[in-house]
Structure formats: C-alpha cells, structure tokens
Write a structure and sequence with these properties.
The chain is α/β, with parallel strands linked by helices. The chain has helices at about 1-15, 30-35, 60-70, 85, 90-100, 115-120, 135-150, 160-165, 190-195, 215-225, 230-235, 240-245; strands at about 40-45, 50, 55, 75-80, 105, 125-130, 150-155, 175-180, 205-210, 225-230. Helix content is about 40%, strand content about 15%. Belongs to the TrpC family. It catalyses: 1-(2-carboxyphenylamino)-1-deoxy-D-ribulose 5-phosphate + H(+) = (1S,2R)-1-C-(indol-3-yl)glycerol 3-phosphate + CO2 + H2O.
Length: about 260
C-alpha cells in the first residue's frame, strides 16, 4: 500500500502548485512535546478517512475538531492533508492553524523538497517523514531542509530494521514508532515495546496508532514513549474534548 501511495504522490508532485505564504508564526512542535500537559504529550489527529478504515468521520468539520482537541489540552495537532487516500486537504491545516494556538503537524507522504516548501507555506509547524518511504540519505536531506524552514520533523519507523538504517545516517530529535503493520494494517503496541529499546535515550519517542484506552497510554509510557499520536479512537467519538479526558482516565466514563 505504501508503494502505491508513493507512486500517486510522485504524480501529484508533477502538478503541484505552491500556495501563497501564510502569515502565521511558527510554533515549536518539539517544545510542546517536551513540556506536556499530562504524563505523556498528546498529538491529537484530525482525520476524515483512511485506506484501511474508510470514512471515519461523516460530519467532518476540521476546525471545530481542532478546537475541541485544544480545549481537551492536546499538546499538538496532526492534520491529514493527503487527498487521494485520506480525504484530507492542505486547506484543512491552514484553516486550523488560524484557529488554535498549539503546534500543527502536517501528516502526509512527504518525499520531495517541494512538499517541504509547501508545508512551510501552508503554516505547518512540523512534518511527518516516513522511514519506510525513502532511503535514509534522502530523509536526512528533507529533514535538514525542514530545519532551515523552522519545521520540526516527526520521523516514523514501522520496524527495527528501518530504525537501524536511519540511525546509521542521522539521529532525528523526534522518533515515532508506528504500531501499524504496513502490510496487514493490524496494530500491536508490542511494536513500541520492542523497538523503543533501540531508540537513543535523548530522543523524544512518540508511539503512534492503536492507542484506544488509558491502559494503552500506560503501556507505551512504560515502554519509553514520551508522547502519543492518536487519531481514529478520538475521531470516532462525538465529543473530542471528552474523548481526550477519557483516554487519560480523567472522566467519569473512564472505567
């Protein structure tokens, strides 16, 4: 599936028109995750659909969802901007950035320098780079380009093999472990537990996907995660603010 998405992305890049520069200040994604509101930092994801789950949110109002996340004390937001597979759009991110005060991560399949420039222009504070999508040297090139644009990078891996290849070339400040198997789409938090041991201690570790309950939060925290990225389990609930409180065991409905 990842290869298919990347092929589509290459085609999109051929016709990519860069937008006007958004006049909004950059916010530090790394600082927000390093000083969380709770025991672990939360990156709450604004996500309409996915290839594995189809439509996740019917009445999709990205700005309202983002505001509800901020009210629930999310430390940062992640916004899907891929149109073809996730029904996202770059305007979702631009609109959200204008209405919240927390940093915003652009979640897309970034494989080319023009997309880094695009991300900076639409108001992103950080971008996702996928370890399995590119060779480590190309990832490093995009990572350094992002830094020049004052963009933090969440560099995610789905396997120990990818992490080791990556660390042989450079050490990202923020490393994500995606608990979703790229081939089967199944999630297992065991992924975080197994790979976390090999992440350098000074790097900020994010556990992504498959986090639904407070027990899951506790599990990945114990495994070494300093932050979590949660999308579907929050998006499927009616009230995103309460959904966050429930996830952290704070609401009366928590147990």
């Amino acid at each position: 599936m990842l290869n298919k998405i990347i092929e589509t992305k290459k085609e999109e890049i051929q016709n990519l028109q860069l937008p006007e520069q958004q006049n909004v200040a950059k916010r530090s994604f790394l600082d927000a995750l390093s000083n969380p509101n709770r025991e672990l930092a939360l990156i709450a994801e604004v996500k309409k659909a996915s290839p594995s789950k189809g439509l996740i949110k019917e009445n999709f109002q990205p700005v309202e969802i983002a505001k509800a996340y901020e009210k629930g004390k999310a430390d940062a937001l992640s916004v899907l901007t891929d149109q073809h597979y996730f029904q996202g759009h770059r305007t979702f991110l631009s609109d959200i950035k204008q209405h919240v005060s927390v940093p915003v991560l652009r979640k897309d399949f970034i494989i080319d320098s023009i997309q880094v420039e695009e991300s900076a222009r639409i108001g992103a504070d950080a971008i996702l780079l996928i370890g399995e999508a590119l060779e480590p040297l190309k990832l490093q090139e995009l990572y350094l380009q992002a830094a020049e644009k004052e963009l933090d990078c969440l560099v995610e891996v789905h396997s120990l093999e990818t992490l080791e290849k990556l660390l042989a070339v450079f050490t990202p400040k923020i490393i994500g472990i995606n608990n979703r198997n790229l081939h089967t789409f199944e999630t297992s938090l065991q992924q975080t537990k197994e790979i976390a041991k090999y992440v350098p201690k000074d790097q900020l570790l994010v556990s992504e996907s498959g986090i639904y309950l407070y027990d899951d939060v506790s599990y990945v925290k114990e495994a070494g995660a300093k932050a979590i990225l949660v999308g579907e389990s929050l998006m499927r609930q009616d009230n995103q603010t309460k959904a966050i409180e429930k996830l952290f065991g704070e609401s009366e409905y928590a147990h």
